[in-house]
Amino acid sequence: MSEPFIRKLEHAGILSEVERCALRILTTNRRAVLARHDIVTSPGTERVHLVTSGIAGRYKVLRDGTRRIISFVLPGDLCWVHAAAISAGRDLKIGALTPCLVADISRPQLTDLIQTYPGISRAMWWVTLTELSRTREWVVNDSRPAPERFAHLICELLVSLQVVGMAGEDSFEFRLSQADVADAIGVSHVHINRVVQALRTQELIVWCDQTLRIPNVRRLKAFGEFDPGYLCLDGLAI
Q1: What are the entry keywords (predicted)?
Q2: pLDDT tens-digit profile of 115-170?
Q3: Which own/partner pairs from 61-65 qualify as long-range (CB within 8 Å, at least 24 positions apart)?
Q4: Which CATH fold would you assign to the domain 140-231?
């Protein structure tokens, strides 16, 4: 469904029904991508890819074969935010970390909507600013100890999935592997089990049956030094 995309964009300002309809029509062409398969290996010239369900990751493989996930792509997220910057990010790949549904959007049609509808133009500008802000926070998060780093990531996922109606007050579906988490927070696949156990021992998380529950959300946010301001959920101050 395209609704996660619309729900996310409306954090930049309410869209008109005409704008919502235009976005729904734009995202009707969807395909399934299996976990561990790439959605796109490099930005193309004609298509922009929108994740409508599941979790994907932007990643790079280093010379020694190590994978580093630099950000997640959640429902309602475009794989490549900068639709006009075709050459941007050619060194990155985007892979499905869980089974995903992906809408393949015509780049010229998206550009036309941005130029035609003020609400969509404002929303896409907000998406760009938000992604830049999130990138900065991931860099800062790398300086925290590994347990705090993971806690911060969990809080970001909780809030981001709540935005698109895919998380409860204290829980969400979490089908990522420990290897995915390790590659996202920059620890070894051996060390990640100790990181997870540290949070479990402190009763900060309950992770089982592909669901992650947070017994005390406020406590986890404090532990991970999580402040949602960088997600720009108050929209544009213009």
Answers
A1: DNA-binding, Transcription, Transcription regulation
A2: 999 999 999 999 999 999 999 999 999 999 999 999 999 999 999 999 999 999 99
A3: 61/93
A4: Arc Repressor Mutant, subunit A (1.10.10)
